[in-house]
Write a structure and sequence with these properties.
289 residues, mainly alpha, Transferase(Phosphotransferase), domain 1, two-stranded antiparallel sheet, 10 helices, 6 strands, 33% helix, protein serine/threonine kinase activity, kinase, Kinase-like_dom_sf, ATP-binding
Amino acid sequence: YATMHVSGGELFDRIVEKGFYTEKDASTLIRQVLDAVNYLHRMGIVHRDLKPENLLYFNPQDESKIMISDFGLSKMEGSGDVMSTACGTPGYVAPEVLAQKPYSKAVDCWSIGVIAYILLCGYPPFYDENDSKLFEQILKADYEFDAPYWDDISDSAKDFISSLMEKDPAKRFTCEQALRHPWIAGDTALCKNIHESVSRQIRKNFAKSKWRQAFNATAVVRHMRRLQLGSSMGSSMDASNSGRLSLPGVTAPVTPCSLASAASSPAAGAELARPHPSAVPAPVLTETK
């Protein structure tokens, strides 16, 4: 992969600093992400860790393009290894990843749906102070378009998000399908200024001072041990693998082998201005290969 210097800053910073921000702006941002990820997918590359802080502006100019960063968890699809290990950032990973099922590039499309959701309201679609309950929400694709935060958002935007945050990866929109959606390709994205509401929620739920908190590896193991995938999916620790977590039916053990920031999870203790508790920052789950 090419390495280049980008100086435009992070996505959330740019949105908060703007005085005017609309659905159309969010649509333009997501279209850029879709174009980039669609290119990756055509090249057989699955990013596997798409999240807002991995979206950087190339330069400080207003018309700067969005760049996708951090390919540390990316993988070539069809490279011989079946992708089934839980990796990515909880809160952005697709249900099939948490379910330890073989998955495909469709996981990136789910993550783009989550990002689009956040760009239109400023808070994440999945949140809970209890890690297991957070995982259960994702596994069930249990999210809502809460009032009043979504009252001024178009039905087209909600339909677009629902098409990407589809629990069944076979029914989930691909990048190419998403690029043809009216909210991206048409004129259904509204031009009403939603900056005040969205920026306020971003500041509350993604406080930058909390973005760099790290979690140790044992916390990740405990995180996975509490995951309930059904009566036939009990988890067990394999002492011979130095703390690796084995799940029945999974060929490769899950190993939390790196400490990562909780950059894209709501800050611990942050007050969510909505009728639900805030989420605890989640660690990144990385693959051993």
